[in-house]
C-alpha cells in the first residue's frame, strides 16, 4: 500500500515523548495507479499506536504486511507485534477494521499485542458463538461474540482477542476459516484450552483525531473521501472509487452469509465475491468463476453458491436497499 497526501488531517498527539524524526519523516514516492490509469505519488497516511504514541507518517506499502512493516519501522518494534489496525478510531471497534482497502483520508491506529491468557472451555453446545476474522498477516482474532452463547458467559474472552493456540496447536499463520473449522470440529462435550492475546489497552481515554476546523466549531468527517486505496490479491494497490449503494448492500449481505455458513467475517472476501459475480447471469456461471479463482480453496457448497446468487440478484435489483 502507499500513502496519499490529500487534505491530511491535522492531529494533536497525546503527551508522549516524540519519536526520532528519522523514524517518522520518511516519505517515499509510490507508483500507484488509480482506476482511470493515471498515477499518483507520495501517498501519505497518518498513523498512531492505539494505546497512545506520537503521530507517525506512513508511506511506501502495497499490502497489509508491508503496512505493518512500515508502522513497525516508524515506532521501532517488530511487525508481528501488530494484531490489527482500525481506521479513524483507537478503540477496538470491529466495524472500523482495516482490511483490503483504506480511504485516502483515513487515519490508521495500530493495535499491538497485550497480555496473553489461557482459558479452559467445555464445549457444551455445537457452536461456541464466535465469529472469527483475520488481519491478512497471519493472525486470526475474535470479531463478534454471540449473545447467550458459551463464550459470552466467559468474561475473560473479548472481541479483538487474537487466537494464538488451540489445545497447544499454533494458529499463527492460519486463515480465519481454518481456525473457525478447528473450533467447529471440536466434539461436543470436549474440554479444550484456548490461548488468547488481547490488544494492548488504550491510554487515550477519549482522545482521538481533532478537527482542523475546531476554532470554527465544525467537526471534520474523517474517512469521508470517495476514493479508496484497495489492496489486490496480486499484490497491486490501486486507487478506486467506492462501490455504490446497491453494491455495498450486497457486499454486507454476502458477509452475513459467510458468518452464517462458515463462522467468519471478511469484508474483503465478500467484496471479491461481489466483483467476481460482475457480468454473470446465473448461479452456474458464478460457481464456475469461483472454481477458476483463488476462492476455490474455500470449497463452498452448492447450497452456499445458491444463497450467494440470491443475494447478488436481490442487491442488483435494489431489494436490499
UniProtKB/TrEMBL annotation:
Name the UniProt record assigns to this protein: PDZ domain-containing protein
Superkingdom of origin: Eukaryota
InterPro entries: GH2_GIPC, GIPC1-3_GH1, GIPC1/2/3, PDZ, PDZ_sf
Region Disordered, residue ranges: 1-38, 205-227
Sequence ranges of Polar residues compositional bias: 209-223
Record family assignment: Belongs to the GIPC family.
Location of the PDZ domain: 118-198
Pfam (any one): GIPC1_GH1
Amino acid at each position: 500500500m502507499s500513502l496519499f497526501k490529500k487534505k491530511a488531517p491535522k492531529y494533536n498527539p497525546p503527551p508522549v515523548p516524540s519519536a526520532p524524526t528519522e523514524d517518522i519523516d520518511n516519505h517515499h514516492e509510490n507508483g500507484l495507479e488509480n482506476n482511470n490509469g493515471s498515477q499518483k505519488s507520495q501517498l501519505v497516511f497518518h498513523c498512531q499506536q492505539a494505546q497512545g504514541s506520537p503521530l507517525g507518517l506512513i508511506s511506501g506499502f502495497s499490502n497489509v504486511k508491508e503496512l505493518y512493516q512500515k508502522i513497525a519501522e516508524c515506532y521501532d518494534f517488530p511487525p508481528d507485534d501488530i494484531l490489527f489496525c482500525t481506521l479513524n478510531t483507537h478503540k477496538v471497534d470491529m466495524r472500523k477494521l482495516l482490511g483490503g482497502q483504506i480511504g485516502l483520508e483515513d487515519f490508521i491506529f495500530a493495535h499491538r499485542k497485550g497480555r496473553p491468557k489461557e482459558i479452559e472451555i467445555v464445549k457444551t453446545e455445537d457452536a461456541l458463538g464466535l465469529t472469527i476474522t483475520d488481519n491478512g498477516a497471519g493472525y486470526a482474532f475474535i470479531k463478534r461474540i454471540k449473545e447467550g452463547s458459551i463464550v459470552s458467559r466467559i468474561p475473560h474472552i473479548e472481541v479483538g482477542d487474537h487466537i494464538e493456540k488451540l489445545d497447544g496447536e499454533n494458529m499463527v499463520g492460519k486463515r480465519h476459516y481454518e481456525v473457525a473449522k478447528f473450533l467447529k470440529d471440536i466434539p461436543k462435550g470436549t474440554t479444550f484450552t484456548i490461548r488468547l492475546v488481547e490488544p494492548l489497552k488504550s491510554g487515550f481515554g477519549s482522545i482521538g483525531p481533532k478537527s482542523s476546523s475546531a476554532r470554527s466549531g465544525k467537526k471534520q468527517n474523517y474517512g469521508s473521501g470517495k476514493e479508496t486505496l484497495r489492496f489486490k490479491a496480486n499484490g497491486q494497490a490501486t486507487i478506486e472509487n467506492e462501490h455504490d449503494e446497491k453494491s455495498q448492500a450486497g457486499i454486507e449481505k454476502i458477509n452475513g452469509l459467510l458468518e452464517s455458513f462458515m463462522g467468519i467475517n471478511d469484508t474483503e472476501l465478500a467484496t471479491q465475491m461481489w466483483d467476481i459475480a460482475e457480468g454473470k447471469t446465473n448461479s452456474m456461471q458464478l460457481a464456475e468463476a469461483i472454481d477458476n479463482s483463488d476462492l476455490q480453496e474455500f470449497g463452498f457448497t452448492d447450497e452456499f453458491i445458491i444463497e450467494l446468487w440470491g443475494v447478488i440478484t436481490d442487491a442488483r435489483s435494489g431489494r436490499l436497499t
